[in-house]
Amino acid sequence: MIHFNQQIQQVNVFNLAGQMVTSKVGMLQKIDISNQPNGTYVLQILDEKGNQKSIKIVKK
């Protein structure tokens, strides 16, 4: 489970092959990727102010 410090409008999760493995839309404060295998993922995040950023995470 990934928790965010602010309200998020949209989160897209990609594996390192560039495939989108999950996408969530709505006012979010967390996203669950427990059903995904261990590995490295890139999250594209759109916050409530319209700012977009990408972060890399490693699930173990």
Automatic annotation (TrEMBL):
Pfam family for this entry, one: Por_Secre_tail
Keyword list, A-Z: Signal
Secretion system C-terminal sorting domain sequence ranges: 5-54
InterPro entries linked: Secre_tail
Signal listed as a keyword: yes
NCBIfam families xrefs: Por_Secre_tail (TIGR04183)
Protein name: Secretion system C-terminal sorting domain-containing protein
